[in-house]
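User: quick one
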Amino acid sequence: MREAATPWERLRQMLITVGPGALWLGLFVLIPTLIMLVASLMSRGSLGQLVPPFGLHNYLRFFSDPLFLEIIGRSLWIGLWSTVFIMLLGYPLAFYIAQSRHKEVLLLLVVIPFFTNFLIRVYAWIVIFQKEGLLNGLITAFGLPPAELLPSTLAVYVATVYTYLPFFVLPLYAAVERIDWSQLEAAYDLGARPIRAFWEAIFPQTVPGLFEGFLLVFIPAVGTFVIADLLGGGKVTLIGNLIQLQFGSAQNWAFGSAASMVLMAMVLLGLWLYARTQGEKGLDKLV
Amino acid sequence: MEPTLFRGRRERKLGQNLAVRLEGITKRFGDQKAVDNVSLDIRDGEFFSLLGPSGCGKTTLLRMIAGFDTPDEGRVIIGGKDMTEVPPYLRPVNTVFQNYALFPHMTVEQNIAFGLRMKKMPRDEIARRVQWALELINLPGYEKRRTDQMSGGQRQRIALARALVNEPEVLLLDEPLSALDLKLRQELRVDLMNLQERLGITFIFVTHDQEEALVMSDRIAVMNKGRIEQLGPTEEIYELPKTAFVAKFIGDSNLIPAQALEPRKVRTALGEFVLDEEDALTPGQEVLLSIRPEKIRLFRDKPNLPNVFRARIDDIIYTGSENQYVLLADGQRLMCETLNQDIQEPGHEEFTYDEEVWVALTPEKLVVIEGGVEGSNPYA
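Assistant: Done. Structure below.
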């Protein structure tokens, strides 16, 4: 047995082990969040700078104006439905890849869009959706009148689903890949028909991956502004657009910070609710 | 006709009804025949083992009885009904998987109750049976445990309980002990035998471990390359191997090439040997003589016995309970085993390196194997 560590030695050990992680979290998560929190409690000066007085006025403004509530409601709505579509597409896709003999190739195909800049990929959708674009070319070739696809909510949905699908498929694939398929046979063996066997033996094991994918998709989908900007035109304003506007042309950093904090609080609330419903294990699974 | 040469390992009254009948089963994977025209009958209440090296088709055969695979040819009859095309969830059999395949997201209780729940059994009846099953496997009080917190032996028993609680007509066991360490394996062998005897359920046990099969089975089918090499009562498989493969795979055997001179007399590199009265060879016929290492007798002075020859002790392998002698006689190597009794008594002999000894092969212990040496090495 080695003798008990002195307090100094213990401090040294702690710095070596958790030190770098703590430093990283402090620099890139904690401090920026605190800056935002402080900024959200300040006011806009005449030149757009942050000035006192401190107070909750930005939050009050946000929650008292039905316009902002509508924006956040719409963001959540579009984010949620995009995520639902992504899940419907991505869930079978992850299973397909996991059991395929060419899984490396298929995984590569899922990742390949990341090789191209995000903005360029969104612009590509403009080429597809615009009035003389690919899609309308196809439609008119069948003798139908061209559709007004840009700007539209539909275009925003399509591009969001396209952009965030890989973020859902990859963690789910990791969960599916670990599944021992003899459990499915065990379920058949014990009298479960195919759908029941899948639902009881396999599906519960994908729930953590499902939730992880949900978070990775839902959070950025709610906060996105580029897609809504380029494909939704002026028609679709999301919370991301609002925040961008406040930090940009409106030059109201205080209000922008407050909107950011509201968005973050709502995401954290969602996480907390999930952890509650999953009991103690919920948080473990999340991490 | 059932041979009556050997009595079973225990007094057993097997039902005359057939639990499982396989008729001409063939299964191909690509152009490879995993199972090649296999037919066999398994009786009610029997402990039946499918024994063979990996890749011999034993697991594929079991999977076709369970319903996970469908044979390309032939029929699977369970309890008198043709079940060849019946899906696994409608068959009156349950399986214990090699890796247990317990559901990791369920507690012990939920795992065991799964099959009963699928049958829509009332809740209190399920609870009662789960209790019964937990007592059966000697794990009462473990209801709420998660299976990933349990040891290999415990998980194996839970897998057993999960299958047995459904009261299957036939229990299929796919190498259920192979992942456990030796001591535990030996314990569970006895547990399995007792359980099977108590419940009277037909067990079909797949294993590559010949000792496991010998200890537990009523009958054994030795498989090789998709075919059954030999099927018979346990003792018959060991004492009267019909092929060189069986002689080498089950236990160990000395194989001596021989040519028949008379119906009961052969010539070998070690001299001329007389055989048992039951053997009847046509002169000129080429055969193999098989003799188990523990059935070879060694003497310091020339004994007055048939089939005696000189040999030199080339090596001695000490395994604790046994002394294994490697004998060299006319270039032929023979293995001989004697119990290490460590008794210093007259008449009890132990031998040393390089000692010249007399070897006697008792005619009744020499088993004649017709057909060539081909396949004599099961690990080739």
